[in-house]
Amino acid sequence: MESLKEKMVNHPLLDSKELSPPPVEAGEQVSSELEDILSDASLSCWRRFRKAVLVELRTLYILAAPAVIVYLLNNIISMSTQIFCGHLGNLELAATSLGNNGVQLLAYGIMLGMGSAVETLAGQAYGAHRYEMLGIYMQRSTILLVLSGLPLMVIYLFSKPILMLLGESKSLASAAALFIYGLIPQIFAYAANFPIQKFLQAQSIVNPSAYISAAALVLHVFLTWLALFVLGWGLLGAGLVLSFSWWIIVAGQFIYILFSDKCKLTWTGFDWMAFSGLWDFFKLSSASAVMLCLETWYFQILVLIAGLLPHPELVLDSISICVTIVGWVYMVAVGFNAAASVRVSNELGAGHPKSAAFSVVVVTVSCLIISVIFAVVSLALRHQLSYIFTGGKAVSDAVSDLTPLMAVSIILNGVQPVLSGVAVGCGWQAFVAYINVGCYYMVGIPVGAVLGFVFHFGAKGIWLGMLGGTVLQTIILLWVTIRTDWKKEVQNAQRRLQKWEDSKEQSRLNN
């Protein structure tokens, strides 16, 4: 397994001679403080541990809390559009649900995944104090994501025949396509937003994104109401307003970058260097996209398979409610995912192997504790959860029956995304993508289908199989993380940075 990991991460971005870690500069006080504490032999093990935990927790929660808020607010923006459209009629609600949870989710997963390459490279560059590189990585990622958005735009344009080919009725496909046409500008807002977001996160700048997302949500609610109930723009207007709101988030974050003193070293203006090394960058970006999309689609496939069981309406209602609850808790884990990626990449870039390893332990244990609390609360409220979404004792009983499995999923989703964040921080995206394919799609889904349909366990059988895939994936990621040679990961980070320096020097000589 270890040799496979090395093979997956040995792409050309790593090809260079081994370098020693750069000297720590005054600006990285938390990093140097944590490394000094962990290396201080004059302190007892317990005092070292206690002081290091306090330092790391302070840094972690400053990063994670705003990141959780950002992802939740961005999710609510799309959800609010569905709520408004639901008041237009059942067809409009179904159309926006199909557009948001189907087609839009495809673009979101691909763009967020590809943007994660910036987390790896920019985070390590920032830790190494090679600040000018962050702006180059952001621009390079934006170029790649815009180009990737072009084939996605074709899918959006032909969404009506695609949906009809998948079995949707003509009326629903036509209504959904109208909404999806309005989401085309959103594709390119994603292409700009995620590199900018990761650029800021790599520098531990997360509060501005939270403030901007909150302001965008308020404006989005007003504009959606205006477009639907005053101007009567219908589904196309709803899609266009949603796209416009995402562009507001992009504009707000970029204006912050232009005028904030915190970004004056990392943003030095547009540079032609962004167009160099695109192929190597694309390989890392595409691996990130595959890794994230395979995780995002996993539970969506659970819902699709459940629709094939007997009494599909009751099954879909109960599973959809449980998946929605898991999804909300997952947003918390995604915030810790971002924090883990930033912390690990920063420490590796700064040449701090002990701090990187310690950050992994603290963030994993922290998120595990939070997820266990959510799981216990879900079990305590198992008979009441469904009434948040709908009435009826039959649905309540079905949700209550699935709640123990949902609680286990919540706990696993408290650990697995964090380990994925560690993988992003280290640049293991391609390796994790292979793990996801094997655990999710060669174990989880087939086992779930057999338990659900052959052994007649129904929804519980499908969920058990999917849960088995997640357990296997989490065990493998834990095993790989525990066995990681963090000094070697520091050297890998330096190779990536040297690769960029060599390209930059060559560009200067050519000019």
From TrEMBL:
- What keywords were assigned to this record? Coiled coil, Membrane, Transmembrane, Transmembrane helix
InterPro entries (UniProt xref): MATE_euk, MATE_fam
- What membrane topology does the annotation report for this chain? Multi-pass membrane protein
Which positions, given as ranges, span the membrane?
60-83, 103-122, 142-159, 171-191, 211-231, 237-258, 288-309, 314-336, 356-381, 402-425, 431-455, 462-482
Kindly list any coiled-coil regions of this protein: 483-510
Q: Which Pfam families match?
A: MatE (PF01554)
Q: Which GO terms describe its molecular function?
A: antiporter activity; xenobiotic transmembrane transporter activity
Where found? Membrane
Q: What is this protein called?
A: Protein DETOXIFICATION
Q: Which organism is it from?
A: Olea europaea subsp. europaea
Lineage, opening ranks: Eukaryota, Viridiplantae, Streptophyta, Embryophyta, Tracheophyta
